[in-house]
Amino acid sequence: MIVSEDIRRISKIARLELTEEEVREFTKQIDDILEAFKALEKVDTKNVKPSFQPLEIKNVWREDIPKEYEWNPLGNTENKKDNYFKGPRSV
Amino acid sequence: MKVKDYLIQAKEGQIDLEDFISKTLEKSAKIQKKYSPFITINDNIDIKSLKKGKLFGLPISIKDNICTKGLKTTAGSKILHNYIPPFDSFVVKRVKEEGGMVLGKTTMDEFGHGTFNINSPFAIPKNPWDNERTCGGSSGGAGCLTQTSDFPHIAIAESTGGSISCPASFTNTVGITPTYGRVSRWGLISYANSLDKIGTIGKTIEDASLLLSIISGYDEMDSTSIDAKQEDYANYLADDIKGMKIGVPKEYFGEGVDEEVKKIIWSNIKMLESLGATYEECSLPHTNVAIPAYYVIAMSETSTNLAKFCGLRYGLEKEIKEGEGFNEYFSGVRKEGFGKEAKRRIIMGTYTRMAGYRDQFYLKAMKVRTLIIQDFKNAFKKYDVLVTPTMPIIPPKFSEIEKLSPLQIYMLDILTLPPNLSGTPMISVPGGFSHGLPVGMHIIADHLQEKKMIQVAHTFEQNTNFNKLVMK
Question: Which site among B241, B321, B337, B452 is 20 to 30 Å from B81 CA-CA?
């Protein structure tokens, strides 16, 4: 059972502020959804390996050769100063 | 004019491209006014730079989660409302190398989160067969534009759980979702990495196959790209299915599937039989758990993918206040930038990956996916293709959708989720009409066997006229 306190806690972890109305709405909806998703528990998956991809994929490697930037990384932001991105204070 | 005929004429210099483009843009603006398939129309097409390739002079629309250099790409989200990509995605690069023109960016549910293309702060496309109904999602704009365009055009769309097939079914167009890894996702704004596939929507099997031939192939920039031989799907546009074996999974004709939809698809199967194929009913026993497996995987992956949208470097930004901390700033931008469905999926995906729940939901869903893949693998030992309805219903009205809960909407993906989870290729073709509205038929093939489904689809198309019917 999901309660609104759970939703508030998850929203902090997800760095996603929710309004009180959203918390109320999501609590009921997500509780219903997770309840329905418990159908997974009934499936026997003993000795079944998880499929993290639909087809088996092997690691691929390439030489680590530096390339020149073809674009200006600062071109899509207002928050910049000199040649740096500007962000909120971290310490 | 058919795409094929147009391409021959354009190549031979019989088309005044400047005139063609200005008329196409005029027509696009009219279509936009009536049906809203675009987020952005590209009124900056440079004719002089067009290369004389296989798509020379052909308008191609691109779903708005696929990056186009210098042309706004929003993924249907306010958080990317002003994003101008500094590079072209792999598929757009391929289109340009072959002389195609990017006509515009088509509407979608925010980040692909939806079945009806209603979850977006931008334009909501209207179904050309009935304006009060949805075009389907999430690639609703691609289906809508393909149906409404009276000029030669093919669309690039994208599917995570059915986002190509659903709008193809609802707009009476042809949608191809290729094998997972067949088309590079370099430059796609990801929803869920282990599920996302770029594909095509066209008026005919020939159109959709032509564009698929061009955009598929190995790309070192996508680590999941399959190093398989690039095929020309035009080679499979046959009119013969003699000896082919069709499986009809009984779970796809069960409860919740509209009776008339079932009837139409069954009569199509009988028709395929009369054209020389054989069919047999079969079972994909794990179909009923595809919905929770898919949504747990997709939400878990999307909650990590969307973590990069934090109001720094690109997209929606706010003024950074003196003394404001990182978390406060990020949470505030994300609150404003994400729509409700994106928020719901981030919250659920964060929950299903959390310590204590990871094994119960996330890992379990990955194991159930193995069983669903095995269902398909077993079926394809016996059958060349599987034939099912694409969607369990005809396109609903917007007023009907409003009354549905999120869970009820997720349930409507039941027929498209299993093949999407399995990464098998699929094609939705116009299969008939119910109450004057289109019904799509789904043809599913084994991994890398696109040719088989194209062969069956083309034979079916040649012997029917469902895609030639004119809108009201």
Answer: B321
